[in-house]
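Handout, section 4.2: multi-component inputs.
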Amino acid sequence: MTLLTAEPRGGQPTPLSLNDTDQRSTGSGARKDRSVPRNTALTALFGAASFRQRFQPNGTILLDGTAADAVYLIASGTVRCCTISEDGQRQIFRFARKGEFVGIADMETWHFTAEAVDIVTLKSIPRAVLERALATDITLRQELRAHICAQLEAREQQLLSLVTSKAPERLLHFLTDFATTRTSIGYITLPMCRRDIADHLGMSVETVSRAFTVLKTRQLIELACAEKFRINAAA
Amino acid sequence: MTLLTAEPRGGQPTPLSLNDTDQRSTGSGARKDRSVPRNTALTALFGAASFRQRFQPNGTILLDGTAADAVYLIASGTVRCCTISEDGQRQIFRFARKGEFVGIADMETWHFTAEAVDIVTLKSIPRAVLERALATDITLRQELRAHICAQLEAREQQLLSLVTSKAPERLLHFLTDFATTRTSIGYITLPMCRRDIADHLGMSVETVSRAFTVLKTRQLIELACAEKFRINAAA
DNA sequence: CGAATGTTTGATGACCTTCAAGTTTGGTGG
DNA sequence: CCACCAAACTTGAAGGTCATCAAACATTCG
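Output:
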């Protein structure tokens, strides 16, 4: 039995090229986490001397327990950050997307596993570079701290919604949150499958599916196909 | 209806005296969170120029949304850190105890409310003092960051156990965790009531009570009275 | 002693998981 | 192009866990 995904036929890391400096301030889409601050100093760090990597779907980006010797910025694609409990249950803490950082809240070893949901392009810098920059740059320190605090708040929000709200409500919240990053008027495409959503929201695949149909019949959302949805503002 | 507690007949903050510097390295008990590192630099900060406050049970220490202008170190007692959802449900994120810090993961305003569970004595320093110290002390920065990261990991563990394990198992985990800080061989006293435990573990008071009896009948724990328990190592 | 609060126990129903089918979708090869 | 297959998604039925309502019991405090 494979460890993290049912069928990890996805590829392995594929180093592409040294930094091509084509990233223009990450500016297009808003952050997923509302409370994540602007991050000019942190992104600048990746503009200077980063290394690009490309991952196929279900490829492992970093593995729980191994040395945390780098920090990542997502150039494109979606990354799932998760852990596995003793009894094999998977919990996906977050789906990180374009412009978001991965690995800034670890110091010695990774405390989670990161995998590519779809095709992912990453920029990475050695952790030592980050640490050196932190030693001198006070703005960078503020940003990093704000980012980690924002992640903490996000987890607490998850905890809260896990306890208070039922399956359809949680799903709607997730979809709404996901949709806020897209300004588009049309359908939004979910890069992750039902199992991923289930492991993120703490329910079974079947319950996710049923929650989708509940939201659909209540006309809170519309579904073009399984992975294309739209939120009904009218409701 | 009162906001946070059923009957906040508890007292208000009672400024006592300026720092009496009687704190000897906080060393006696281990930390609750396993991954919390040694914190000499941070505690030293409180030894230098701190202010003592005393709170009666259910007294409000700091209020969600207000300015985060201080940082706290618990000298004695137990503090609950919580938020309230729109529908009135309370979620207690952590019970902070002697030697632990409160408020180090907030930057502008508090994102939670802290209340005294029993009689609590706090040492506090202005946030500005912390910030000034951080600007020059690299060790302090490392410690602070490690602390916040540890809290993040703790929340993720909570998330995981909330999803994976059932009520009795979660309760046992909580009790075990609580007991690790006490080296004593006898019964351990819980400072918080069933409702607090319920709001911490994400279940109803009745379920907490039933989980206690389940653990008792399975001989995993012993109960002298409602708030004095002991974990059976044999099991 | 009696009132009040906190804890336990019982009964019922809601919600969700699990198991077990169907149904759709996407890809491959004839 | 269409048939076929595998994977993902959906739907149904049965059972388990937990929340809720309700009542009994315990403890504290006046």
